[in-house]
C-alpha cells in the first residue's frame, strides 16, 4: 500500500474533566474542541513492557513468562511555531499551581499574552496522545512531558523535542484526522531570534556571536511511584522530582571584550566559577519572533540564574576558532524561580485562547 501523508498525524488532548474541573489522569474528557493537532516532523512513541521470565533448576531452558510493567514512552519532534500545539508542550513542563485548571476565562490573558511560570507546588498536566500511522490511530493515555529540549542554529528553524511517558497503549482505532492548529502560521527561525545575557541583573546585553544554542528542561518524573501492586501500568500520574535546566551555547569566537554581560572563554576562568544572576533581568533571554499573514507572534524563554561550566575551544587546520560553553540553571532565591516562558500571540488572532491549556 502506498504511503499516504494525509493519515499521519499527532494530536494532544489535556486530561481535565471540565475546563474548571479536577484532573482525570488517563481520561480526556474535554471533548473534540480540546483535541489539538500539531505539525510534527516525527514521533517515536511506543508501547513497551518488561518481560518477566522464570528459569528454574529443573529445566534446561526457561518455560514460563509474563508481561511485567507496561508503559508508553517516546518523543515528538517539531519546528516551534506559534500555535496551540506548542502551547500544550510548554504547558506540559510548567502546568499551574492548583489541583484544578483555571476556568475557561483564565486560559487567555489580556492581549493573548501567556506567561508560564514556576511554583513550588506546581501541578503538571497529563495528556491523551493520538497518533495516526497511515492505517490505524494509536491512543496513549496518561502521557506526561518528561523533558523538553529547545534548539536554535544559524540558518535553521528553531526546533523542539518533547519526551513523554505514560500508561500502556490503550487502543487501536479508526483514523480521525485532527485540525492542525498551525496551518496559517510559520515557525520561529534564526533570522528573527535574539539572545541576551545579564551577569548581575542590572542590564541585559544582546550577543551577536552566537551560532547555536540549546536548552533542556528535565522534570525527572517519578514513574516508580506511579505503579502499584494490582496493575501492570501506571495507576496515578508520575510526579516531578528535582527540576533540572541545562544548555549549551556555541559562539563564533572564543574571546570577546564586550564586557561582563558577554560570556567569553575567560568568563569561566573566574575564581570559584562564573555565575550569572539575573534578579531584575534574567541571566539568559532567548527570544523568537514569527511574522505571518495573520500577524506577529513572539516566544521568549528566560533562565533566571545560571552557572557556566568549563569552556571548550580548539583549533584545527584553517578552521575558525569557536567556543562552546555549557550551563546549568539554578534556583534564584530572590524571585523563587528558575525559568519563565512568555508566549505572545496577540498578533495571531487569539489562536491560543480557549480551554486548552493554562496560562498563568
What report would you give on this structure?
By secondary structure, the protein is mainly beta. The protein has 1 helix and 22 strands. The strands form 3 sheets. Strands 1, 2, 3, 4, 5, 7, 8, 9, 10, 13, 16, 17, 20 and 21 form a 14-stranded antiparallel sheet that branches. A hairpin with a 5-residue loop joins strand 8 and strand 9. It is globular, with a radius of gyration of 22 Å. The N and C termini lie far apart (47 Å). The C terminus is likely disordered.
For the structure shown, list the relevant keywords.
360 residues; mainly beta; 14-stranded antiparallel β-sheet; six-stranded antiparallel β-sheet; 1 helix; 22 strands; disordered C terminus
Q: How much helix, percentage-wise, in residues? A: under 10%
Evaluate the radius of gyration: 22 Å
What is the residue-mean pLDDT, rounded to a whole number? 83
How many E-type strands? 22
The main pleated sheet reads as: 14 strands, antiparallel
What's the order of the H and E elements?
EEEEEHEEEEEEEEEEEEEEEEE
Q: Name the structural class.
A: mainly beta
Strand proportion, as a percent range, falls in 35-45%
